[in-house]
Write a structure and sequence with these properties.
379 residues, alpha+beta, At1g16640 B3 domain, seven-stranded mixed beta sheet, two-stranded antiparallel sheet, TF-B3 domain-containing protein, DNA binding, transcription, REM16-like, coiled coil
Length: 379
């Protein structure tokens, strides 16, 4: 018991961990190890993958992780056999990478007793297992406590949970079966078993979207996002080389955080689709929304800056277009004035021409009358 407590007290607090007491099916037949479902739902990959198990001496073993069953299968038998695990042993699993456990073993028996068990072809150990303990937030060990010389942990090469440290109670398969059968929310049975701590994981340690997880105030929420929104949010985080939600207020619920992230992605995509014809009302609405999210702690200043640049360019372009139109309008006014002056001259010329034509008509009638009088005159 003290050994387990000491190990947990000396683990690096920035990485989540859980403990597991070995039962008969884990070490003598079947060789199928269920990990705590709440821990897996929050911290483990959503798809089947290969997990690295590193023991206290630094030797590594590969084991298959079955996501649907939250269990280790192929490869676990070799680890169990090589370490001569027996019923009652307690294992502390320390997640130091997205798919890597550092495993610490607390023996239920002395090594001589374990050797005798494995020399027997038929293992029949009836020892009472060490009782599992439910741990609250890990406290700093007292000065009187003897510090263990734990092996240094390799820095995580993949994503590790960003917002929580976990120590779970699991003294049998009952916890896993209860969650499987009742289909309950994994967080409903955590209570004192899960405590969230601030993350010290740098976003730079995230190598790909496969390792990208979103944890807000101790709750993992990336599984609640669609693949599209998760991908787009990952791209936004990559552009800033940081989690945009790192400084989100602690009072923000996971549901509200999901809505905020979704709205940010929608606005980002709308910004990408902007045109010259985009109205000032749209720019104003987007900026006000992002400003509200910024006040809640989201890192969206870069989006607001881009909005401001686009808005400024749009205004300048519209002003430029307006100036060209004004010049064109002035030119047309000059043309109109010139044409009006020409029209006045044409009207004057037309009037003179009409007057001349009337005079000619009158003269024609006069000369026609004289001509007829001359025709009818006496010889």
């Amino acid at each position: 018991m003290e050994r387990v407590e000491e190990i947990q007290a000396n683990l690096a607090g920035r990485f989540p961990s859980c403990m597991k007491t070995m039962v008969r099916s884990n070490v003598t037949h079947g060789f199928w190890l269920h990990l705590p479902m709440p821990f897996c739902k929050l911290h483990m990959p959503k798809q089947d993958t290969t997990i690295i198990l590193e023991d206290e001496s630094g030797e590594e073993y590969k084991a298959s992780y079955i996501a649907q069953r939250t269990a280790l299968s192929a490869g676990w038998k070799a680890f169990s056999a090589d370490h001569k695990l027996v019923e009652g042993d307690v294992l502390v699993f320390h997640l130091v990478g997205s798919s890597k456990f550092k495993v610490y073993i607390v023996r239920a028996f002395k090594s001589s007793e374990v050797d005798r068990c494995f020399r027997s072809l038929e293992v029949d150990i009836q020892a009472k297992p060490i009782r599992s303990i439910r741990m609250k937030r890990t406290k700093r060990p007292s000065k009187k406590a003897k510090c263990l010389e734990l092996l240094p942990l390799d820095p995580p090469d993949d994503n590790v949970e960003n917002k929580s440290l976990m120590v779970l109670d699991t003294d049998s398969e009952h916890l896993t079966d209860r969650y499987d059968n009742d289909n309950k929310d994994p967080s409903s049975g955590l209570d004192d078993g899960i405590k969230s701590l601030a993350s010290v994981i740098d976003f730079k340690e995230i190598k790909s979207i496969d390792n990208f997880i979103i944890i807000v105030n101790g709750s993992r929420i990336d599984s609640e996002l669609s693949e599209y929104h998760r991908t787009k949010y990952y791209e936004l985080c990559c552009s800033q080389n940081s989690f945009l939600h790192d400084n989100l207020l602690e009072s923000i619920s996971s549901k509200l955080a999901l809505e905020i992230i979704t709205q940010i992605i929608n606005i980002a995509e709308a910004i990408r689709a902007c045109k010259i014809s985009t109205s000032q009302a749209d720019y104003t609405l987007w900026d006000k929304t992002l400003k509200g999210f910024e006040l809640l702690g989201m890192n969206v200043g870069f989006l607001r800056a881009k909005l401001n640049r686009l808005n400024t360019l749009s205004l300048e372009l519209q002003q430029g277009v307006n100036m060209e139109r004004c010049k064109e309008q002035d030119h047309m006014k000059e043309e109109k004035k010139s044409l009006e002056q020409k029209l006045v001259k044409l009207k004057d010329a037309m009037h003179k021409l009409d007057t001349e034509i009337e005079t000619l008509k009158e003269n024609a009638e006069k000369y026609e009358l004289i001509f007829r009088e001359e025709v009818t005159a006496a010889w």
